[in-house]
Amino acid sequence: MSSIKIRTKRLDGNTQIRTLISHPMEHGRNKDKTTNQLIPAHFIQVLTVKHNGKIAVTCNMGAGVSKDPYFAFLLKDGNPGDEIVIDWTDNLGNKDSEKHTIS
Amino acid sequence: MKLNRRTFLKTSISLSAAGLALLESQPAAAEWSATDFAPVAFDQTLKQITKGKPVVETAKINLEIPEIAENGALVPVTVTSSLTDIKTISLIAEQNPVPLALQLNISPGIEPFLSARLKLASSSFVFAIAEADTVCYIVKKKVKVTIGGCGG
Questions:
Q1: Is the separation of the CB atoms in A53 and A103 below 8 Å?
Q2: How far is B52 from chain A (nearest CA, A)?
Q3: Which residues from B are below 8 Å from A10, CB to CB?
Q4: ipTM, 2 dp
Q5: CATH number for the B31-145 domain, one of 3.40.1180.10, 2.60.40.2470, 3.20.20.150, 2.60.120.260?
Q6: Residues of B (44-73) whose Cβ lies below 8 Å from A
């Protein structure tokens, strides 16, 4: 199952994109309670949203974003049937991508 | 592999062409930079984000964030703006070990609107900085955190 959930909604000629990603977003200063070792940093660095293949949003982030990050963006126009692709890359090189069609 | 001068030139040309193509395909995307997201003092992060441009406080950016956050691990924040010429929006938490939380690049295809959830280590000011061509617009809001978001 993909780690990304996408919802879109048409709002006064714009399209609101909401996304929820499941990711630990560890900043590397938390300790594992059982082993008492530091949990290594593991966070999303870049999030991109493509609208019909064209990059609409690039969002760089650090570990100051909450666990299981939620984002909302507002796309100018956007029509039913348009394709939205969201992908992320984290500091360990993991990637994920999800497609969504505006309804 | 035998590498004489001719093949070396050919490969270097094709490599640089590939590099150019890669650059052209993503002109607007600013790279993730480790210096921006470094665990440094707030003042230094502010300098790096504003890039020496004059900083202007404005009422045209609306930063919605709760005044009292019960849980610092999850603070909802929404930034909207009526400014049209901004290129990036950055969110900075003054007291966080890594002050810069996120940076959104505004492409022509999107409205200056962003909603996200941040971690706040302790009660501090949260800044939203919008970078335009010649100036940086800034708004700040004080957030009181009753439980810290860093350190479990």
A1: no
A2: 21
A3: none
A4: 0.87
A5: 2.60.40.2470
A6: 73
